[in-house]
Amino acid sequence: MTIVRITRRAIAASLIFISTMPAFADNYPSRPIHWIVPFAPGGLTDIVARLVGQKLSEAWGQQVIVENRPGAGGIVGTNVVATAPPDGYTIGGISLSFTIYPVLYDKVPFDVFDNFLPITMMSMIPSVLIVNPEQPIHSVEDLIKEAKASPGKIGFADGGVGTGGHVGGELFKKMTGVDMTHIPYRGGGPAVTAVIAGEVPISFSTASLVFQAVRAGEVRAVAVTSPQRIPQLPDVPTVAESGVPGFETQEMQGVVAPVGVPKEIITKLNTEIVRILQLPDIKEKLTNLGAPPQTGSPDDLSKYLHSEVAKWKIVFNDTAVKAK
Fold first, then answer.
1. Which pTM does this prediction carry?
2. What is the reported pLDDT for 4?
């Protein structure tokens, strides 16, 4: 009898919870929302979170607190989101590295598909293949010839294992059959500086980090990694049109919530964030950064994440790269 009573009470409690979910979503948000950025301040993930978070605060009358939780290539902050209560009051920014965790790391405290619910993609930003001006590399074709003539001698700088520059370089190696040496730095900025100084000949660097250096003649922009050319560098061809058809890699910015957040809240967040990203001032700011808004449904983001993980598993399948 005791087991029967306990079971009945559990069922009743579940029914009460389910019946109150729509009302809970209608009242959301009734207190501050914490937006976790798993990287240090100043990066694109941080900038996008603050731009959108401010507009969310204005629209909903509740503060959106952006918290930077850097560490372990973004794993520390991402785990904060994974383990947060599934009530919609903790969400997290994600970037390309989110799709690299299950590929490059032996042990990660979360599963990128099982522990998160996608809300929306927010923007896409390509990398630019930059070259030190003293190098005899003026095109993708030149780079391929140089790399094949001296296997392993050309190094490519980036902001660290699993960053956009790293995976861009590895994808380039995979699709062209060249051998280049990965040289990680402590951030995208130092990687660009290394190319300017001639420490490393090339880098696949985030577009927003290189515009000033390109305009100043400190580096040579050889190609962009997006499917189309970008407005800031209209004369710079894509890697795909430069002899490597199908090549594409971009630094996605998105937002997710812990698994278990009610669907109504996910929908509410998606609708408002998508609306904000279409505001003229937000579109202008992100476009000037080389990261024009690119949004969609939660399902769109889910499909994108699955396709990216599958792609990087192929790219890194036969490499010696493995992060611990």
1. 0.82
2. 47
